[in-house]
Amino acid sequence: MIDDFLLRALLAGLGVAAATGPLGAFVVWRRMAYFGEALANAALLGVAVSALARIDPTIGVTGFMLALAVALTLLERQRLLPVDTVLSILAHGALALGLVVLAFMERIRLDLMAWLFGDVLAVTAWDLAVIGAMLAVVAASLAAFWRPLLALTVDPDLAAVEGVPVVALRLLLPLLLAGVIAVGMKVVGMLLVMALLVVPAATARRLARTPEQMALLAALLGTGAVALGLALALWLDLPAGPAIVTVAVVTLALVSVAR
């Protein structure tokens, strides 16, 4: 009989991996990894803001990340500095500011390592509900806008001519990415959550022949990495988040060598 906390950990990991797989395909296609890294690094400031406001960290971080995604999308259009420079400044600035704010919060204790590297074994029923809701939103959004998103990825100008709502869809992907990063931190932590988005998708890209195959394979590879990573973590007494990402990276290396 599997313990309740192990079952919650497995379900949470599978839910996050199922959401990151198809979304990670768009991250790879559109080269949004740097954008995602900026969001992930800035998440610690969201943790600090949530603690100051005394609201649930999961809800607070998710709201902060969604607002930040909108801000970063708008800042990408500025012409004062290159986009990657702006993202790097904001990412590391927000990370540093988050650490400074937490340093002044002497009466509030936070497990910083859990936020940095994940603590999937501490997932609660509430966390599981939030992850399930985010998975439903991602699945519904990608199902409804799959073809327009593909058209936008291939050729934005042609997509606009064909009547695709380019502006709205350009905002949709960052919002979905922010939501998945916010809930995925519980599983693998803010420092590794982008690996769960990028690595299974990169592996699937070497195996798939169509965009749909790549999205499905990325989800399957991600859920497989979660299941095997959790098993290794329990068997070898390893940190769960890093174990999951290690399995994903080793899988990519083996597939690359085999191909």
Write the layout of secondary structure elements.
Layout: H1 4-29, H2 33-53, H3 57-75, H4 83-104, H5 112-117, H6 125-154, H7 156-161, H8 166-188, H9 193-205, H10 211-236, H11 240-258
Helix pairs in contact: 1-6, 1-8, 1-9, 1-10, 2-3, 2-4, 2-8, 3-8, 6-8, 9-10, 9-11, 10-11
Describe what this molecule looks like in 3D.
The chain has 259 residues and is mainly α. It is 81% helix and 0% strand. The protein has 11 helices and no strands. Helix 1 packs parallel to helix 6 (125-154). The protein is globular, with a radius of gyration of 18 Å. The model has no long low-confidence stretch (mean pLDDT 87).
The total of beta strands comes to 0
Query: What structural class should be given to the helix and strand makeup?
Result: mainly alpha
Tell me the fraction of residues in β-strands, as a range.
under 5%
Kindly report the average pLDDT value.
87
Unreliable stretches covering 5 or more consecutive residues = none
**Structural shape:** globular
User: Roughly how much helix do the residues carry, as a percent range?
Assistant: over 70%
Q: Report how far the terminal alpha carbons are from each other.
A: 40 Å
The gyration radius over C-alpha positions equals 18 Å
| Number of discrete helical segments | 11
Largest sheet, in brief, is: none
**Sequence of secondary-structure elements:** HHHHHHHHHHH
